[in-house]
Specification:
Order of helices and strands: EEHHHHH
Shape: flat
Radius of gyration: 19 Å
Strand order of the largest sheet: 1-2
Structural class: mainly alpha
Helix content: 55-70%
Largest sheet: 2 strands, antiparallel
Number of helices: 5
Distance between the termini: 36 Å
Strand content: 5-15%
Length: about 150
């Protein structure tokens, strides 16, 4: 199963456990490597390109997790649509990250700045995610807890 965590049968203590999937382990590995490189960068100058190497796999894993959520059995239509929009928005964020990395490597902008093209691509990804959030079904007054 491709997902964040796979539910396991209830333990003797009555608390349900879970086990990590390959997707979660891969995301954790990317996180640990990226954070380790960040700590190295705090102590000495590092090559700029290496700092961008974690972006594509991190975005790819996020998109894959969103896609897995859209294909999960028993998921409501509104929830599928939400995760599809989040996944598509992550593609936009990934393209923005790639554009940002190219800008930085080619020296088009200072490392702390973002070019206009990169800004538009990031914004498009963010707007797709926002649209998915705004289209998600809201609880009705009868179904609201209170």
């Amino acid at each position: 199963m491709i997902g964040v965590g796979v539910p396991m049968p209830t333990c003797v203590s009555g608390v349900a456990g879970w086990r990590p999937t390959r997707l979660l382990l891969a995301a954790g590995a990317v996180l640990i490597l990226a954070e380790a490189w960040f700590v190295v960068g705090l102590t000495r100058p590092t090559p700029q390109l290496v700092s961008w190497l974690a972006v594509p796999p991190a975005v790819g894993l996020a998109v894959r997790a969103c896609w897995a959520a859209t294909t999960a059995a028993g998921l409501a239509t509104g929830a599928r649509r939400f995760w599809r929009h989040i996944g598509l928005g992550m593609v936009g964020i990934g393209l923005g990250g790639a554009s940002n990395g190219v800008d930085m490597l080619l020296g088009h902008v200072a490392p702390q700045h973002v070019s206009g093209v990169t800004s538009v691509v990031y914004l498009m990804g963010l707007l797709v995610m926002l649209w998915g959030l705004l289209r998600s079904p809201a609880p009705t007054a009868a179904g609201a807890s209170g």
